[in-house]
Amino acid sequence: MFKQNLIKYLRPKSFRQILMYLIIALMGIGVFLTRYDAPLYSQHIVGVVESTTQQSKQKTTDQFNNVDYSITQILKIKILNGARHGQTVRVQNNYFKSGGLNQAYRPGQQLFLNHEAGNDISIIGQKRDTLVALMAWITISLLLILMRLPGLLTLISVLVNVGLLYIAIKLDLNITNINVVLLFSGIGILMSFVTLSLALGWNKKMAITLGATLISSVAALIIANIVMSLTHQRGLEFELMDYITQLPQPIFLAEAFLAALGAIMDASTDIVATQFEVQEAHPEISRRKLFNAGLGVGRSIMGALTSVLFLIFISETFAMSLLYLRNGNTWGYTIEINMVLGMVQTIIAGIGIVLAVPIASGLAAFFAHDKEVVK
């Protein structure tokens, strides 16, 4: 039964669906062709590994009894572009088995190469455009095939938001002494507006969700600022932020705002959408009961959303934290160096999610409770 329903759902029923499948197929062909796009690269030499030979293998042990192996392999590489197209070269690759800083290469992999002084060739890294294109194609295909118009709107939303973020970064780089918090907060508001407009349409439901999202996000940021001011930011080592070339505190707050915005918008959307459905099913329901319905939804989802944010943060810091612990550092030092700032950002987002529950429920109960129900 499930198989029959799936086939029926996927079977094209209109010219638009046939065109969609055709576009997806052409994109798939494009992904395949990235395997042969070496002539398009002009700044770097592209080569394909034809064979590998292990030349040496040496065991190394550090003072903490961590064991690794230093391996040297000789790669036979065929050059695929440039003046030396078609030539075969041999390149030495030194790597550690742990793969922390470098990697082994296998036959069939394509590499970016650098032409050094004389005729020496060195390895820059692996060419991964085919893998990236394949993952993007799978994501886009699933969105379009399974979700169709909502999936297309999701793709448009992502592209517009990427463009807005790019504009914000360019403004930050080109304008001296710009207020980073206001800049990225403003961009975040625009991103929320675009996302909700495409997802919900221009209606009362979208306006209530946007209002609840922004109020909760700004309130969480204000609370964080107050707490940080009262505690004089003790325990927050902003200088440990990676690649910071300007004041780190505003960058930290901007990161926290953007990180919280998505989760708060998710919570607000679920709450408001449920209240509108309840209002539509029971037009006679009171505002208090509608408010309590929103609170019930919020209580059921805020724990899961906060956990998702925490797990994302843990996945970002797990590898580096494990490296610190394996090299004799204490748990306290490892957490301070790698985790404290991320934990604080997760807490700020959690505060925003908690605030979004009564705010979204209250706004929806007040504005949705009338004779006109927006579908």
Automatic annotation (TrEMBL):
Any Pfam family matching the protein: YibE_F
Entry keyword set: Membrane, Transmembrane, Transmembrane helix
Transmembrane segments: 18-36, 130-146, 152-169, 181-202, 208-231, 297-324, 344-368
InterPro entries reported in the protein's UniProt record: YibE_F
Name by which UniProt lists this protein: YibE/F family protein
Record organism: Periweissella ghanensis
